[in-house]
Model the fold of this input.
Amino acid sequence: MSFSDYRTALVTGASAGMGAALVERFCKEGLTVHAIARRQDRLEELAARTGCIPHALDMTDIDSLTRLLRGLEIDVLVNNAGAGRAGSIPSASAEDIDALVDLNVRSVLHTVRTVLPGMMERDRGHIINISSIAGHYNFAGNTIYHATKAAIHMLSRQLRVDVLGKRIRVTEICPGRTETEIFDRNHGVTKDEAREKFYEGYEVPSASHIADIAAFAINLPSYVNIGLIEVTPTFQVPGGLTTLKSKTQ
Done:
């Protein structure tokens, strides 16, 4: 299958970053794109620029989300909406845990649950889950985020089992450091501070690179499924090993 085999797409977390880049790319490919995000002003600007159909909605409002999705016929679904909180489990609040699980996992499960049956009935569809290297590798901090993205990794693999025998593909795109708004929105720093700390002096992928990769996976023949793509800066290595000496010695 390719873009010519599909008519519609749904992108969550569409108001900025990877989501906005995906909406823009899909619109250029001729799809009717439904864009979901909370920030209505950003969505309206995106719609004016791309021609997408905006839906200002909190993804954690499952009742409203389900009502919207039941009225749509979606060929390409991109689960992109997500959030992060810095810190380990001992320093996490109950609200930190609930907020990330609700957005990063619960809303994704409900979105797939609602959209997938139509894809299966039509024998046509592509689900793209945006996860993170944090779901595959352990490194300091962001423990809750790691756990939620690991859930998306396993969901992506399990969905391949659920749709076996149907012309439905499932792709997990797993970015490392990518230039988006995630650090200034979720790590308690300003946009300028985030740029100085995480991007200045680094060569990192942009949101448009992620959109290009998604388009590559979609444009392959229907009998080719790209299951997992890791995308990192050339100068970034995920994982690592830390060993400490015992304090009793």
Summary: The first strand starts at residue 8 and ends at 12. The beta strands are 8-12, 32-37, 53-56, 76-79, 125-130, 168-175, 228-231. The chain is about 45% helix and 15% strand. The chain has one domain: 3-231.
